[in-house]
Amino acid sequence: MGIHMDHNIHAPTVASGPTTTGGPDLDPAKLSMVELMQEKERIEEELSALSSVLTSVSNQMASTLENISNHLDLSQHGVNMNSSLTTFDDFPRADIDVAQIRTIRAKIIRLRYDHKEVMKYLEAGIHDHFSNLQRAQGDTSSVSNTNGSSGTQSNLTGNSSSDAVMLGPPFARVNSVAAASPADQAGLKPGDKIRSFGTINWINHERLSKVAESVQQNEGRTLIVKVLRQDGGDATELNLELVPRRDWGGRGLLGCHLVPL
């Protein structure tokens, strides 16, 4: 026999105090790019931990009841953000810690909002950095690759190393390149690691789906592809000009196969 709940039991409990280690006064607009990246990773780790707690809390409660009745199946008590906290007749479920789950849900909601804000400033910072790099390219020397295409290259030292940090880690690797394809003419080679593809980067590529979308939207237009190439023990940063097109005699608009990292 339980106590009937007149209020909305599913509404998240608002936890007291800050829900993140950054504190309530944390302003993403005042963080550096490196700090934004660190904050993003911290929030994602905490979200992952809280999501796991939702399941473990219900499992711990079920374990206690199992010791009493020996009739409970733990696998039936997993809880997520959408799980009902009441029985069919609107009483609180006895197999879970409803109060703790509501508190955790409230923390997850706040963390998701924090993550959205951090991502907004992080993406804006990266786009600004891309714009600065493109303006700076006018002062760099052009080099011709073996296929006659042009681009810029630099060893991964000095300012180039700083640029690489700002761009973030590579998000894709070139698995294969078809001969005489747009990718081949741009200078892409198997093993190249892609830091950015136009405006697509490690933050927003969405398992490369945004790369495919960008290619379709920019057929016949030049896309700047920033590549990290390993040559023995040396790493070289390349800015390649790639023009997606379908009249090259092969399949697709690029003629290369990319795999996510």
What is shown here, in short?
Helices cover about 40% and strands about 15% of the residues.
Question: Would you tell me the overall average pLDDT?
Answer: 73
Spatial strand sequence of the major β-sheet = 1-2-6-5-4-3-7
What percentage of residues falls in helices of 4 or more residues? 25-40%
Global structural class? alpha+beta
Point out poorly predicted stretches.
1-7, 12-21, 64-77, 140-150, 154-162
Order of helices and strands: HHEEHEHEHEEE
Which descriptor suits the 3D outline? elongated
Number of strands: 7
Count of the domains: 2
Q: CATH homologous superfamily of the largest domain? A: PDZ domain
Family: Belongs to the proteasome subunit p27 family.
Keywords: Chaperone, Coiled coil
InterPro entries: Nas2_N, PDZ_6, PDZ_sf, PSMD9
Region (Disordered): 1-25, 135-162
Could you explain the architecture of this structure?
The protein folds into two domains: 28-135, no CATH class; 145-260, Roll (Pdz3 Domain), CATH 2.30.42.10. Strands 1-2-6-5-4-3-7 form a seven-stranded antiparallel β-sheet. By secondary structure, it is of the alpha+beta class. The N and C termini lie far apart (54 Å). The protein contains five helices and seven strands. Mean pLDDT is 73; it is low at 1-7, 12-21, 64-77, 140-150 and 154-162. β1 and β2 (150-155) form a beta hairpin. α1 (33-69) packs antiparallel against α2. The radius of gyration is 25 Å and the shape is elongated.
Topology of helices and strands:
Elements lengths: L32 H37 L28 H39 L6 E2 L5 E6 L3 H9 L4 E6 L4 H5 L6 E5 L11 H9 L5 E9 L2 E9 L13 E5 L1
Antiparallel strand pairs: 1-2, 2-6, 3-4, 3-7, 4-5, 5-6
Helix pairs in contact: 1-2
Family: Belongs to the proteasome subunit p27 family.
Keywords: Chaperone, Coiled coil
Protein name: Probable 26S proteasome regulatory subunit p27
